[in-house]
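Minutes, project check-in
Item: structure for the 548-residue chain
Input as provided by the requester:
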Amino acid sequence: MDIANFDPEKICDLNGAKIAFRAFLNIFEELQTENARLRNENQELRDEIMRLKGEKGKPNIPGNKGGSTNVSSEKERRKPGSWAKGSKNDKIKITRREVQRLDRSKLPSDAEFKGYEETIIQDIKISLDNVLFQREKYYSPSRQETFLAPLPPGYSGQYGPGIKVFVLSQYYLCNVTEPKIKAFLDSVGVTISEGEVSTLVLDPDQKFRREREDVLKAGLTSSTYQHMDDTGTRVDGKNQHCHIICNSYFTYYSTRPRKDRLTILDVLLGRTGERCYYLNEKAYTLIRGFNGSERIIRLLQTTFPQEREISEKDFLGLLQKHLPEIGAIQRMRILEAGAIVAYHVQTSFPIVYLLITDDAPQFKEITAEHALCWVHDGRHYKKLQPWVQLHRKQLDDFLDSYWKYYDQLLQFKQNPCPEVRARLEKEFEVLFSTKTGYDQLDERIGKTLAKKASLLKVIDHPEIPLHNNPAELGARTRVRKRDASFGPRNEKGKEAWDTFMTHVETTKKLGISFFEFLTDRIFGTKTIANLGTVITELAKRNPLCNSP
């Protein structure tokens, strides 16, 4: 209804009154939503002014009912009885046994021995182990050479392997800050400076980084689908983006200055050097999809090498020579198209067939197929905050139908069949063509309908998850680390954060203790196989997805 030209005198029946009243309710919702947004924005500006004056802004203290909107869908998706507490004794490693005896002189004469009652007590010991190594030293006059007995494996510098394992596990696994680690070491008698703690949390010889790259390659090979997400990270006080790739067997972190399509491709290839480009009909199809003009495509076809790899230096030189006048956006789309095709024609690194992500634009067109996260889509509905009770009920009713449909998809994954697939496709169309009269909800429903192909990838690939939770959990881990330590101070620190967080999350998924992993690598005992090898062997025994 056109409210600006509305004339109440024209309402001549009940139906017309309902239409008019519904329009006014929607206007009321829009005004309330806009008012809430402006209030928040105004408070943020006030806080910023106070900070510029050297004061503190308004503290973010949630109210008694939570204070902020809860957009989690865990309550709707959790099934009754899906979790129960079990015994942990079978998981405890027994390191020693002691028999506790009774004083028989104090027992009655008729007391009979009935065996033992076992009680498991978990404990640890933390003590100094400062070693003075007396290393034999010989000198050969004939060879003019000195021979010195080597230190045991893991011992180098001023600190032994036990301290190195402790510092790395506390910093990356437990998110303990460097000052707190120093404070603890001081308290047990270790003499160490803040700078030395900062050095210990790095990866100076790059051996952990090399294994991180093995994790990426094996992880990408382990399945044709992968999850991906990103979160903000500060590096030396500047904003960057931490990208997460994962599946059930690994999690890989890579922090980059940007989060565009070119960066996504760099992350998928584990690439830090120059990019490569490739032009063919697939590239031109992508450029047309990016709204590139036919004139530009003709110039690319006639002035650039076709169907062969082009180095970044040569490609940029050709762009400058033949297409100097194009705008920044068109230039970026050409680079993206050429890089995407180059990714798919290369054979040196595993290619991801299907990517599961949220609806961010940088993930689109990267892989042959793209699946969207149902949980992320449902979160948009939870962000709606209707003021009108009728609209609240309409939203609740629709969300109830939304998650019931989600449950049907879960059931289909367990027993996929053509008949159910056809029914689910029809039900999707019906559900997401619903018109409630609540404009904000109807607009949201229409946006979900437009994403049908990506949301229903599961009916083509029942083995893939319906959500992107693995990547979001990986991002949450980075956020917790960021909250504790703010961010790395330089490129070496950034590389160390990515490296050790990759190993923390990957060992967890592989059922390997991160503490024992560090101990094995630093002491050099080599009892734990390379994580890439572990992933490969596990994927052979239990493949996640074998065929496109």
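Outcome recorded: The longest strand covers residues 225-235.
No further action items on this chain.
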